[in-house]
Amino acid sequence: MANAATGSATTEHDYLHHGTGLKSWLTTLDHKKIGVMYFISVMLFFFVGGIFALLMRLELMAPGQQYFSPDVYNRFLTFHGSIMVFMVVVPGIPAYLGNFFLPMHLGAKDVAFPRLNLASWYIFMAGAIFTISSVFFGGVDTGWTFYTPYSIKSSGAVVLVVAGVFTMGFSSILTGINFITTVHKLRAPGMTMKRMPLFVWALYSTAILQVVATPILAITLLLLIIERVLGVGIFNPELGGDPVLFQHFFWFYSHPAVYIMVLPAMGVVSEIVAAFSRKTIFGYTAIAYSSLAIAAVSFLVWGHHMFVSGQSEIAGLVFSLLTMLVGVPTAIKLFNWVATLYRGSISVDSPMLYGLGFMFIFSIGGLTGIFLATLATNVHLHDTYFVVAHFHYVMVGGTLMALMGGTYYWFPKMFGKVYNETMARISWFFIFVGFNVTFFPQFILGNLGMPRRYHDYIPEYARLNEISTYGSWMIGLGFLVAFISIIQALRSKTKAPANPWGATTLEWTTPSPPPHENFPVIPTVTTGPYDYR
Amino acid sequence: MASGNSDHPSEIHVTQPKVFFNVYFVLLVLTVMTVGAIKVDFGSFNLALAMLIATVKAALVIWYFMHQKYETSLNRLAFFSSFFFLFLFFILTAIDVFTRKSFIQL
Amino acid sequence: MSTSVPADTAHDHAHHFESREHQYSAAKLGIWLFMLTEIVMFGGLFVGYAFLRSLYPEIFFDGHKYLDVTMGATNTIVLLTSSLTMALSISYIQTGQNKKAALNLWLTFACAFVFLIIKYFEYSHKIHDGLLPGHFFTHAGDHPEKIGMFFGIYFMMTGLHGVHVTAGIVLISWLLIKLYKGHFNPKYFTPVEGVGIFWHIVDLVWIFLFPMFYLIH
Q1: ipTM rounded to 2 decimals
Q2: Under an 8 A CB cutoff, do C51 and B66 touch?
Q3: pTM above 0.90, yes or no
Q4: Tens digit of pLDDT for each residue in A92-105?
Q5: CB contact under 8 A, B38 and C217
Q6: Domains plus CATH for chain C?
Q7: In C, which residues are within 8 Å of B31 by CB distance?
Q8: Which sign, positive or negative, has the C-alpha torsion A236, A240, A244, A250?
Q9: Do C211 and B50 touch (CB under 8 A)?
Q10: Is the pLDDT reported for residue C2 higher than 80?
Q11: Which range is least confidently modeled, A465-474, A490-499, B35-44, C37-46?
């Protein structure tokens, strides 16, 4: 693809050894180090959010109260949701894998605004600290959606959590600005937009969402804080306000947000499917444009979270119709991935296992989204465990699978080390099987009528809940093995080659790990990104 | 010089101060008009008129003071798309807020 | 990067850009994208205003009587003037007239201060009279039931705007410091443009806030 310097030994230190000590990390302007810093933070927050999930599933294992009162349970579910959404899945792939590889995919030496990039990380950490510190001030029990009027009246540390989320929103906006500018201004010579890797198209579409939608979250949360403190009256029915208006404000961001969470994951899957089929991706243009289409349509559908909230019937009709549209570009991606696999030279290494796992799980998740988009069905399923299963299928089965797949795929490049493939496969197995054991029963539970955000349920639901909890332990075990495999790999002495998978995007032309400047000489691009022969 | 990247103008346009002063004068006049307009009763058109004048003022500020007249098409798209998305937010929310049926008290 | 480049053009930009122009072009895109977010953020409040005003016109009609049109109009003129001086300062830097640029930055700074002083008088008057948001509203008199909502929206929108004016003052001070240190010249003035564009957004928001709150018929 590129006629650049190859991945053989260089005289330069790699980026990990450029500068020494903690200070060289905390003051770095290197997008790769910043990506690694996000990796560590996001994994840490995932661990915290995961603990809350395990505790919730422990309580739900049998009917009746076992360990936690309803108030405590409600705090757990709020923390689980807030941490996972804002501190893991939203930043997860873009800020970690995106930061590391977007510039390299473009043949650039860094993102457009490296200092802003570092600032993004600090702002993210500050917001995360605000949010987590609320645990020590009584916690919050409103759910991650902070619906009014309860969020105005609840006695918990709502302002602290909301201020934390507000802050993290700015981190997301700045990352979005950085990525859009990088894509427009820092592509290597010869790299037209149609020669960019699909991961970049996905990140670009995501960045548009981050920049356009997040400011509405900012103003919504600010209004909520002012409501609590001063009583503006806009969302509070006691003062004449409209709680449904809050939901419009909230979901105008939060629906595009779920695509912020999933689009980069789809980009990772495109990379993995091409590399591990050793084949040019089928339908490159369709996949590229489908990312933009998903981003565009995502702004039109937010009312499907509000069908039974008091929204008018006409609005419900309009939002339901528009929501059906979003399945189309998503399906296009899936069909193109499958077509890529067809007659490809497939190797089922662990990144590919995660890629295939994504395709299976996301199909279920996406299709159940269409069930929920149907107005009449939604009345039955809203606020039940069916919804919980749906979004965990797309978020965990989707985004988290892709995050793990991307981690294993790019691990040799990022750290110059080799991980143990057997351990990676074992952890995949427990995560994949455990995931389905945890969440598939929840579709059935929801259809049977079990409400979400409840700490208890009728005895009829006991068996399925018990199975779901066993599944959660399998997931936990899977991530534990994955964590161990990563630590072991980092400590091993085996060096990774420049291009262990024989992939064709630009990062694989650099040494593993890459040098500080990525490309001593900026490559000139003459072909598309998946030029397998 | 440039890679396959988007436009950047090789010459940067400098606005003459005279242009700024002219625009400023027009803005002052429009402000006086806005204040004067409330003395006349146009009924419900008053709000629309005030918003129209404000929009003209805003357009002048954006086009001349903020230099959008000489900006690249990419930068224009980046900025003006904000209004489009706000419009979407307003319209779809309005479809709900203005079609709610009122309850009949029994 | 090429070989025989004069020293100053090799070092007048960050290493990941090809040239000063390249870096400037990227900076401009970043600046406009940031302004997009400011428009959407304030715009969200405007959307909220639109719905509340159409649902409860009576509270807007009643509430606006307590706003001083003269002070509001003065503030409008003050901000428009500050936009003029801000724009002028950029032109002067671009043409190497740093003294005039500094003067105009100082004028912008002064206008911003005047705006905040007038706002201070407006706010303290309202606080004194109990014209406050939500359940803090204690003004005696014949008011529609939800009048507290009007003042909630008023303080929220003008308050957020005031925060941005304050931020602008800080940024303009920063520009003045850099100007006096000789950082700006006809070839480099990106921060001045960035702050300038931000400042014009602040002016833009007020251009709408003024008729929306003070000039209700």
Answers
A1: 0.93
A2: no
A3: yes
A4: 999 999 999 999 99
A5: yes
A6: 33-215 (1.20.120.80)
A7: 73, 76-77, 80
A8: negative
A9: yes
A10: no
A11: B35-44
